[in-house]
Fold this protein.
Amino acid sequence: MRYQAPEQEELLDHKGNPRAVADLALSYEQSRLNLAFHEAGHAVLSMACGMHIIKSEVIAWERPGGLSVTGRTDHDARNIDPWEFAAQCAAGELASLHSLRIQRLWTPERAAACAADHDRELAIDLLGSFGYQLGRHHTPKGGKSWAAVQAMAMARMHRMWDEIAAVAHAMDERDVLTGDEIAALTGLTNRPLPGGAA
């Protein structure tokens, strides 16, 4: 665990705005594991669709009056189908929610607090920059709704739950997992970076 807060940029979304901080009314240990499931959802579905995973991590630090926890997954998504990218964006929140259900910690309030709007907005903006239409609450002509992307991610998440759980528990224990460590835990292939970049 870190003793100092992460750098400010680690707490920002893709637009440079602070990511929402949710209070799930859980213990530190439960919150940390829940966050590990969120990041494991991103990492496993990303790797399964052919992305190169650099690292996935739980970031925890002391602050006055308690502990804070967040996370991040760094990957290279070049040459990936845009809808696959959107599905991995949805997978974090879905894995977090499924973990709460399994542990019998799910409540409507905690489910609302798990909402990862920053992941949805990243998918909408990135796909939009390539001409793909992803609607928040509707299905745009020629595109998909976020609900449809979530359904696709949910089906994949359930098929790969054992792999997600293995990664989440290892991340909770070690803080950071490299892509190669995730591949070893799951049997998936961490695709080499295009052009052999490190």
